[in-house]
Amino acid sequence: MIAVKCPHCHVGLKVDEKKLPSDITSFKCPKCKCPIPVSMLSQKEGEGTSSSDTVLLHLMKKGIGKITVLPNDETAEQVFLLAEGVSIIGRKSTKPSLTTIGIETTDRSMSREHIRIEVKKDPKGGYKHYLSDNNSKNRTLYNSNYLGEGEVVILNNNEEIIIGRTVLRFNE
Ligand SMILES: [Zn+2]
Q: Domains (ranges, CATH) in the chain?
């Protein structure tokens, strides 16, 4: 276990480094939902500070999938790990919303609750990822086609989803 403080909200976090996927560059603070760079873990190794508000991180299940937000003028690169169940993905905002994965961006053509990804266990042992548009204002491009109302597609590794002017890449 490595103890670190979230650089954004300063909550104490304990991270089981053995459960961190090797291919991510950041993870989400469970309290403030801001990304924390994985590089912070190696810097703080051995620092055993624990505070009363320490949160144990146990969200890193390998192979469950992740979304990478590709950087452009409006958005910095961000990586989000998917969890089993439904994630609502869209523009991060201070207004209340159902968004579970909030992307920090100035892309106003991205809705706050733009897409929905449901992760379900596959009987064969892996996971399947079901993408649908969440009644967004500007719709969702998947493999160069707009998703229809109520349409659900199964994501494959390395596929791209475009919401507003922002490209998301899905990886298993
Ligand atoms: Zn935080």
A: 2-57 (no CATH), 66-171 (2.60.200.20)
